[in-house]
Design brief:
- By secondary structure, this protein is an alpha+beta fold.
- The termini are far apart.
- The strands form four sheets. Strands 10, 11, 12, 14, 16, 17, 18 and 20 form an eight-stranded mixed beta sheet that branches. Strands 1, 2, 3, 5 and 7 form a five-stranded mixed beta sheet that branches.
- The protein has helices spanning 2-16, 21-50, 64-68, 201-204; strands at 92-94, 97-112, 115-122, 131-134, 138-145, 153-156, 180-186, 191-197, 210-216, 227-239, 242-244, 256-259, 270-273, 278-284, 290-294, 299-304, 307-308, 316-317, 319-322, 327-332, 338-344, 361-367.
- The protein has three domains: 2-50; 64-217, Cupredoxins -  blue copper proteins (Immunoglobulin-like); 229-367, Sandwich (Immunoglobulin-like), CATH 2.60.40.
- The structure holds copper (II) ion.
- Residues 288, 290, 344, 346, 349, 360 line the site of copper (II) ion.
């Protein structure tokens, strides 16, 4: 309509001046062209202010990013049958290949006391099961997707062939709801690794789709620790009993923090005896850094991201900052009894719904 008005106004103006017909036509064309271009620029500016188009994360036509910030649907989601994650996953042998099965599905997961998350979980627990194998083992993992959206698994740090790396649309097709995908590779090298969704990760990892993948060296660790424990750190956002994916810097900040799927006081304690060697394998499974501090004893960093640290290079620390994706294996030998706390040293991360104590706290109970 604005364009028509331009033509009308300019025609009227030009008629009043004594310009030849040919020139008049040229002028009208020029003015209409400039007017139209200007109108288009205005239109584009307005629409980019009104609708910010979020980045597409997948090729399935779903606007994943806008979708990702909604509450996780709890319609028809049932309570988890188990209360503890990282249970060692059993396998069946097919020749010399260890065959594992993972099923991803929504569950209600208790984070602490009466607070439950609607989680997306592998085999019904948060974190998913611990896959514990030996360096050089042939493994096959059959992954069934019972989630309401596609997913894939990435074997973080394991030296898999490229086709098993779990990158949607790059190395494999996303696993659609109801479908399965078979991952097969040789588990190597020895170390602390983890597996997690690599589809719509901003949402899927944080709401539970991760687990531990520990490859032990042939013959076992030497010296063997008396206590060997994986500690996966993660964050959650629960508002009015609804679960939202915790997304830092988006006004979707976390308000709950978990070690192995539990917030203090429901975190698991570790019981050790004076003189025992304790190995803790930290995995940063969330989106925030967590400087984990141990009371009572310094520890040595014996492995970083699954790689052994040579004896002469092992730092002695009492705080280890575990960034997203990182793994740190630390070892210590308690020399006196007590209830020694292990906690994140960002004090907000030791709260539940802004109340302390909570979150990333647990006790190492040492007895004689
Ligand atoms: Cu923290």
């Amino acid at each position: 309509m604005q364009g028509e008005y331009y033509i009308y106004a300019m025609n009227a103006m030009l008629r009043n001046n004594s310009i030849s017909n040919n020139k008049r036509v040229l002028w009208v064309i020029l003015i209409v062209f400039v007017g139209f271009a200007f109108y288009q620029i205005l239109l584009n500016n307005n629409s980019s202010q009104l609708k910010v188009k979020p980045a597409q994360l997948s090729s399935d036509g779903v606007d994943e990013a806008a979708h990702a910030m909604e509450a996780i649907s709890d319609a028809g989601v049932s309570m988890a049958k188990e209360d503890k994650g990282l249970n060692e996953l059993s396998y069946k042998l097919d020749g010399t290949t260890k065959v594992f099965r993972l099923t991803a599905q929504p569950i209600k997961w208790k984070l602490f006391e009466k607070t439950y998350a609607t989680a997306w979980a592998y085999n019904g627990t948060v974190p998913g099961p611990l896959i514990h194998v030996t360096d050089g083992d042939k493994v096959r993992i059959i992954m069934k997707n019972n989630l309401p959206e596609p997913t894939t698994i990435h074997w973080h740090g394991v030296l898999v062939p490229n086709s098993m790396d779990g990158i949607p649309d790059e190395t494999q097709k996303p696993i659609q709801p109801g479908e399965s995908f078979t991952y097969e590779f040789v588990a190597r090298p020895a170390g602390t690794f983890w597996y997690h969704s690599h589809f719509n990760t901003d949402k899927q990892i944080g709401i539970g789709l991760s687990g531990a993948f520990v490859i032990k060296p042939r013959g076992g660790l030497n010296p063997k620790p008396d206590i060997d424990k994986v500690l996966m750190l993660n964050e959650w956002r629960i508002l009015s009993k609804q679960t939202y994916p915790a997304m830092p810097a988006t006004d979707m900040d976390a308000n709950l923090f978990t070690i192995n799927g539990k917030a203090f006081p429901d975190t698991e304690n570790i019981n050790a005896k004076v003189g025992q060697k304790v190995r803790l394998r930290f995995i940063g499974a969330g989106q925030l850094i967590h400087p984990m501090h141990l009371h009572g004893f310094p520890f040595k960093i014996v492995a970083t991201d699954g790689n052994d640290v040579p004896l002469s290079a092992q730092w002695t620390k009492d705080v280890i900052s575990v960034a997203p994706g990182e793994r740190y294996d630390v070892e210590f030998v308690p020399d006196r009894p007590g209830k020694w706390m292990l906690h994140c040293h960002i004090p907000h991360h030791t709260t539940n719904f802004h109340k302390e104590p909570g979150g990333l706290m647990m006790m190492i109970n040492v007895t004689d």
